[in-house]
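Try this one yourself first.
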């Protein structure tokens, strides 16, 4: 970005920032700018504070904001930041002596204007992390003008060297990691229900493959049953949570079925002679994105099936291997992986424009993408080194950032974002 464009960029940031009455705060960043993969992160200053409780809240705020990619955060005094006009926003967090109110001030550093937000702390025990997350989402709403995602979770498959695979749950900032699956066998390919109440995953044992449904609160899991001769591979949810889309293998052929959880009724959706898998229901419940090698054997491509008119449309035509489709929250786009020159890369397809956009590059695999609930970020697994790890990237491309800080011998694959 040249100096002239940089000046225009900062002019836009400053001029569209203004204060409104009440607890509403106008967004300050031109959304067109963050759609540019070369977007320069906005600098945010956090006013230093000596209180341990405030420092802990600031650290939660900083850890979550850094994952959003669009910001660059630093700590210092108000006087220090006042001399640096490249720091666009200042945020000051204060905790009253009686611990009843948390006061947050947000400044436009260029215009020296600020806005107050007061949180009443009614709980007997001050939840430092919870308040840090609240401030993060509030800040995001009032600067980028879209919903915060700091309280969302990511389920993924974790595996230590020479150990079984397990489903893990990660907080958005990656600081909280919890093992989710404890049943025998290797657990993989998780899927969140649309209401976030249940997680579906596949369990592989030496003698069988099973599908498991488990409440997100880690209550007792339920093993699904299928007719003899049908082997489950992978599944995802209908929007109502009453049925699932499932790939079942029979005599070497894989087909997609609907499975009613109440009565275990199976209904085959496709009766093709080819392999069909990786079905994903659109947010409106009217379309299914899936993968099939019907055009050329062992060359999977992505299709969309309309449940209303029963018509099926092929989406991908370039590349010999396209897979892992996921719908955007608004149902207007699909992200997927494509193999190029021996490596998998993340692509985005726009349904209105029928345009495909490559988001990741490099001589290493980037695969199994999924959307953030606000549609602004993507999580995926990338093998930049020997062991694959989880990364975030903007939905418009650009730089990536690690999700967790797991040990080098732990692989992280198949991430799925809560809704």
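Now uncover the answer:
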């Amino acid at each position: 970005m040249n100096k002239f464009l940089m000046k225009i960029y900062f002019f836009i940031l400053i001029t569209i920032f203004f204060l409104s009455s009440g607890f509403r705060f106008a967004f300050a960043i031109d959304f067109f700018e963050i759609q540019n993969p070369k977007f320069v992160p906005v600098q945010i200053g956090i006013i230093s504070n000596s209180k341990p409780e405030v420092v802990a809240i600031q650290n939660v705020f900083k850890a979550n904001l850094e994952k959003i990619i669009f910001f660059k955060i630093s700590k210092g005094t108000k006087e220090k930041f006042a001399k640096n006009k490249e720091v666009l926003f200042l945020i000051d967090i204060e905790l009253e002596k009686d611990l009843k109110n948390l006061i947050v001030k947000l400044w436009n550093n260029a215009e020296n204007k600020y806005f107050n937000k007061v949180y009443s702390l009614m709980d007997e025990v001050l939840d430092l992390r919870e308040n840090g997350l609240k401030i993060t989402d509030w800040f995001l709403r009032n600067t980028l003008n879209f919903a915060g995602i700091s309280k969302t979770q990511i389920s993924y498959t974790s595996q230590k060297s020479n150990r079984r695979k397990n489903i893990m749950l990660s907080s958005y900032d990656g600081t909280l990691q919890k093992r989710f699956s404890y049943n025998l066998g290797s657990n993989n390919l998780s899927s969140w229900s649309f209401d976030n109440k249940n997680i579906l995953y596949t369990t592989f044992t030496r003698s069988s493959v099973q599908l498991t449904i488990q409440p997100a609160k880690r209550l007792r899991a339920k093993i699904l049953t299928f007719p003899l001769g049908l082997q489950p591979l992978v599944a995802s949810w209908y929007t109502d949570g009453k049925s699932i889309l499932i790939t079942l293998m029979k005599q070497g052929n894989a087909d997609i079925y609907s499975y009613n959880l109440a009565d275990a009724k199976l209904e085959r959706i496709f009766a093709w002679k080819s392999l069909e898998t990786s079905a994903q229901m659109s947010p409106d419940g009217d379309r299914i994105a899936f993968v099939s090698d019907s055009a050329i054997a062992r060359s999977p491509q992505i299709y969309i099936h309309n449940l209303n008119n029963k018509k099926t449309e092929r989406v991908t035509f370039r590349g010999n291997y396209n897979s892992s489709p996921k719908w955007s929250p608004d149902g207007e786009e699909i992200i997927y992986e494509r193999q190029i020159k021996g490596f998998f890369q993340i692509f985005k397809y726009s349904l209105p424009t029928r345009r495909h956009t490559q988001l990741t590059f490099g001589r290493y695999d980037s695969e199994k993408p999924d959307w953030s609930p606000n549609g602004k970020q993507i999580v995926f697994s990338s093998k930049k080194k020997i062991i694959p790890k989880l990364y975030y990237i903007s939905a418009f491309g650009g730089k990536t950032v690690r999700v967790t800080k797991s040990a080098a011998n732990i692989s992280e694959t198949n991430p799925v974002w809560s809704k």
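Discussion: The chain has a mean pLDDT of 88. The chain has five helices and 29 strands.
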